[in-house]
Design goal:
This protein is α+β, with helices and mostly antiparallel strands. It has two domains: 233 residues, RlpA-like domain (Barwin-like endoglucanases), CATH 2.40.40; 132 residues, Ribosomal Protein L25, Chain P (Beta Barrel), CATH 2.40.240. It is built from eleven helices and 16 strands. It has a nine-stranded mixed β-sheet with strand order 2-3-16-12-13-11-14-4-15. A hairpin with a 4-residue loop joins strand 8 and strand 9. The longest helix is centred in the N-terminal third of the chain and has 14 residues.
Length: 376
């Protein structure tokens, strides 16, 4: 489906994992026995996790992954009740398997939300809340963000639009450097030509996105496959090379580095041999691994070995400003686990932020902590 830009903005207003996730998720997580213990905890930026929203005061160490609680500690209002119900409706309409598996839970949770979603009344609706232990045992769960980018492109190479976005080839085992050298050229696989090699790369990191061909409409390019080579996070490479301080790493920082070093971009990207292919999706809907259209800030990518697809979560989302600084507040969102990510492991969630530059800006700065309750 082709979306008019104005219609897209209106749709997002109604609805109202990636590079950072990849950079941070492989960090070692060392459990400590108390907040003041000398045992170190390696965090995404190797700085005090409290700067990024982690809280220790007044909390007890939790050894089990999940712990049933009589009351949710955060008694504030759920801020996205309507968006959550839209997301749940999408699950019921697009995934019969998940709808059947979670029919009882969805029915109870829907009744609770329609009655006002008062967190102190969960038990009245037969809903059990289990808090996650977090990366450190003090319920601090890592939350990064992902989004659907909008790429500027043309259907044929012209002017500054020289960077091809490829469909899936019959033979996939070409490295990124081989593809850049022309291994796929002339096979009719070019879906579009963008004006930015780094934008193409970030499109692959996100796994899908929209392409603006300059005619006032947006085409949705969905994930079609990958070349089979291991992914290496360019953000991590830039940190290891001393190009960007680890505590400053973000998608924005990578873009700024690329803009300042255009002759070095291809060399950096070729150190990551993994390459993602796309397909034009006429539905125009952003779907997660569950095949369900995603609603911004009502859907998350999770480690399904910890949180299975379809699970409903009460998420304490850390609030950050436009520079990525934690404001000192968390807000409660209801979300459904509907996606996965290669860098999303353990007590880590990638929150779907939406479409376009603003969503991408916040997603790129997100590497913060909050609590998560699984609703059963």
């Amino acid at each position: 489906m082709l979306l008019n830009k104005k219609s897209l903005r209106t749709s997002l207003a109604l609805l109202a994992l990636s590079v950072i996730a990849a950079c941070s998720s492989n960090s070692s997580k060392v459990v400590k026995n108390s907040p003041s213990s000398n045992t170190s905890v390696s965090t995404p930026a190797e700085v005090d996790p409290k700067v990024f929203g982690a809280i220790y005061e007044g909390r007890s160490y939790q050894g089990n992954t999940f712990q049933t609680v009589g009351q949710v500690a955060n008694q504030s209002s759920v801020v996205n009740q309507g968006d959550f119900l839209t997301q749940l409706s999408n699950v019921n309409n697009y995934s019969g398997k998940l709808a059947n598996n979670y029919a009882s839970q969805y029915e109870k949770i829907t009744s609770w939300v329609l009655a006002g979603a008062n967190v102190s009344e969960l038990a009245n609706y037969g809903i059990q809340a289990q808090i996650m232990s977090g990366f450190d045992g003090y319920q601090n769960v890592l939350m990064t963000g992902y989004y659907s980018p909008v790429i500027h492109a043309r259907r044929s190479p012209q002017g500054k639009f020289q960077n091809p976005i490829y469909a899936m080839p019959s033979f996939k085992r070409y490295t990124r450097s081989q593809i850049y050298a022309g291994a796929l050229k002339g096979q009719g696989l070019e879906l579009a030509y963008s004006d930015s090699m780094i934008d193409n790369f970030l499109l692959g990191v996100q796994g899908s996105g929209y392409v603006d061909f300059g005619d006032g409409r947006l085409n949705y390019f969905a994930y079609a496959g990958q070349n089979g080579f291991k992914y290496y996070a360019v953000g991590r490479l830039l940190v290891e090379d001393g190009e960007i301080p680890k505590e400053k790493m973000s998608i924005q920082a990578i873009r700024e580095w690329a803009n300042a070093n255009p002759s070095r971009v291809q060399g950096l990207l070729e150190r990551n041999p993994s390459y993602v292919f796309f397909k034009n999706d006429p539905t125009g809907q952003v779907k997660g691994a569950a095949g369900v259209p995603l609603v911004p800030m009502a859907a998350v990518a999770s480690d399904r070995g910890v949180i299975p697809m379809g699970t409903v979560l009460l998420v304490e989302v850390p609030q950050i400003d436009s520079n990525g600084n934690w404001t000192g507040q968390h807000k409660l969102h209801l979300m459904v686990a509907l996606d996965v990510g290669g860098a999303v492991n353990g007590h880590h969630f990638d929150l779907y932020r939406g479409i376009g530059d603003q969503a991408g800006h916040i997603a790129g700065l997100s590497k913060h902590y909050g609590r998560v309750w699984v609703l059963r």
